[in-house]
Amino acid sequence: MDVNPVVSVNHLSKAFGKRPVLENIDMEVQQGEILGLLGPSGAGKTTLVKAIIGLESPDSGNVSVLGITMPNLEIIEQIGYMAQADALYHDLTALENLQFFARLYGLSKLQQKDRIVETAQLVNLSDHLHKPVAQYSGGMKRRLSICIALLNNPKLLILDEPTVGIDPVLRKSIWETFRQLKESGTSIIVTTHVMDEAEKCDRLAMIRNGKIIAIDSPKQLITRSNTQTMEEAFLFYGGVEDEN
Ligand SMILES: Nc1ncnc2c1ncn2[C@@H]1O[C@H](COP(=O)(O)OP(=O)(O)OP(=O)(O)O)[C@@H](O)[C@H]1O
């Protein structure tokens, strides 16, 4: 119903050399929506999110974010992006990391302070800000990376496998954070190959061999495929397209 999607991907295709990695992708993300990109390793999820941000240029088709064709520097500043690998300075404390990135985002001293307090609270790191990142667990590092992606109060948050290597309890708390952000109107794109995580998304794009093989709410995907679980549904939709 929403006429102004936050993200609109139109007929997007991309090849590396002769190898097609994304083929004719069409999708939209609405305000306050959590869209999951589910697919096996190598399916093209990272390439797709990079194309959305403007870090990969499409061979054909286009992407617009907040109504503007990407890449666009002003729009990039409104996107929070967390890549697969944590880009943290291990010798610095978490607070120093946050201050560094807040300066990069161009936040004033006062804004920096406020945003760091707010975002650290969201990811449950307020009590650990003075520890060097070298002493952080894997889960704490992921949460710190999410915190950094949130610093500039993005309208669109893109997270590439945010909970890899994180135990179920922490994963749950991170998903609660996503829910809170969603409630406040943030749109979230999250890549995953974990089925239980996929089920938490509002809508799910199942990606295989660079194509969207199905896109709908998790419930609808299961109902439409006449299966019981997300895993079975994924196999159902993926099973029919592998002819070569
Ligand atoms: N810069 C590049 N040059 C050449 N091939 C690339 C490049 N980046 C990605 N690829 C290839 O494109 C395909 C899709 O990669 P991509 O990283 O988008 O997959 P993915 O679904 O995110 O996988 P994963 O879950 O392992 O991160 C892979 O076969 C990968 O090897």
Secondary-structure map:
Blueprint: E1 7-16, E2 19-29, E3 34-38, H1 45-53, E4 60-65, E5 68-69, H2 73-76, E6 79-82, H3 94-104, H4 109-122, H5 138-150, E7 156-160, H6 168-183, E8 187-192, H7 195-198, E9 203-208, E10 211-216, H8 218-224, H9 230-239
Parallel strand pairs: 3-8, 3-9, 6-7, 7-8
Antiparallel strand pairs: 1-2, 1-4, 4-5, 9-10
The chain binds adenosine-5'-triphosphate (ATP).
Adenosine-5'-triphosphate binds at residues 16, 21, 39, 41-47, 193.
Features:
single chain, 244 residues, alpha/beta, Rossmann fold, six-stranded mixed sheet, four-stranded antiparallel sheet, 9 helices, globular, disordered C terminus, binds adenosine-5'-triphosphate, ATP-binding
Write up this protein:
- The chain is of the alpha/beta class.
- The protein has a domain at 1-78 and 157-165 and 193-244: P-loop containing nucleotide triphosphate hydrolases (Rossmann fold, 3-Layer(aba) Sandwich).
- The chain is built from nine helices and ten strands.
- Strands 6-7-8-3-9-10 form a six-stranded mixed sheet, sandwiched between helices.
- The longest helix is centred in the C-terminal third of the chain and has 16 residues, at 168-183.
- Bound molecules: adenosine-5'-triphosphate (ATP).
- Adenosine-5'-triphosphate binds next to helix 1.
